[in-house]
Amino acid sequence: MSYQIAVDGPAGAGKSTIAKSIAKRLGIVYVDTGAMYRAMALFMIQNRIAKEDSVQISKKCKEADITIEYRDGEQVVLLNGENVNGLIRTEAVGNMASAVSVNKEVRIKLVELQQKLAQTTSVIMDGRDIGTVVLPDAPLKVYLTASSAVRARRRYDELTAKGESCDLNKIEQDIIERDHRDMTREISPLKQAEDAILVDSSDKNVEEVIDTIISLAKERNLG
Ligand code: DC
């Protein structure tokens, strides 16, 4: 029997690092839904559509064919057939993704794809609305968070390690803005599902968070 683990939380809480490791440990598939919104954002940027232009976003998203493949266990996002993994991890695409993801047509399209992916295989899926909208019946839902200062510091370290120059205060400001937009949008805002377990990673390292979630899975006889 396949099962699902839903992981939601704000930007920079460590969702993808943690979900990816848990997928390996439990031998299930990791689905990064943020990458799908990022691919859609990239498509809008490439087509020079402004983030405020909701009419054009609603129209244009129908031309974006977004699919997921797994190569050597890694999720590869294809935008109209092209592997865009290398193009979607910038702050600019992340900010555009947050803006594009308020759009109803975009969400309908991507949620459908996510639900299809979880139908036949066991998955750990991370995002903002997985426990509340995409997989409301998931047997384990985790809401993973950390303070904005800790999240900004982690993002800063990640970007500087990649050689991108950045400003810590600006990153924290962007995180606060993005949280606000993700939590107050009309459709599927980021919020903790009623039956989700809150895990605060501010004072925990990656291994401690992984162990916490694996224990929660075992308690539910998953994996
Ligand atoms: O997790 P991330 O930073 O890659 O996500 C980028 C943006 O996509 C995020 O600001 C909000 C949006 N998103 C969403 O609305 N719903 C999801 N399930 C995943 C991401």
Report on the structure:
The structure is a single chain. With 223 residues, this protein is α/β, with parallel strands linked by helices. The chain contains nine helices and eight strands. The chain has helices spanning 15-26, 33-46, 54-60, 91-100, 104-120, 130-134, 148-161, 168-184, 206-219; strands spanning 4-8, 29-32, 66-71, 74-79, 82-83, 123-127, 140-145, 197-200. Strand 3 and strand 4 (74-79) form a beta hairpin. Helix 2 packs across helix 4. The radius of gyration is 17 Å and the shape is globular. The model has no long low-confidence stretch (mean pLDDT 95). Bound molecules: 2'-deoxycytidine-5'-monophosphate.
Helix-strand layout with pairing:
Elements: E1 4-8, H1 15-26, E2 29-32, H2 33-46, H3 54-60, E3 66-71, E4 74-79, E5 82-83, H4 91-100, H5 104-120, E6 123-127, H6 130-134, E7 140-145, H7 148-161, H8 168-184, E8 197-200, H9 206-219
Parallel strand pairs: 1-6, 1-7, 2-6, 7-8
Antiparallel strand pairs: 3-4, 4-5
Helix pairs in contact: 1-9, 2-4, 7-8
2'-deoxycytidine-5'-monophosphate binds next to helix 2, helix 4 and helix 8.
Summarize the structure.
This protein has helices at 15-26, 33-46, 54-60, 91-100, 104-120, 130-134, 148-161, 168-184, 206-219; strands spanning 4-8, 29-32, 66-71, 74-79, 82-83, 123-127, 140-145, 197-200. With 223 residues, the protein is of the alpha/beta class. The strands form two sheets. It has a five-stranded parallel sheet, sandwiched between helices.
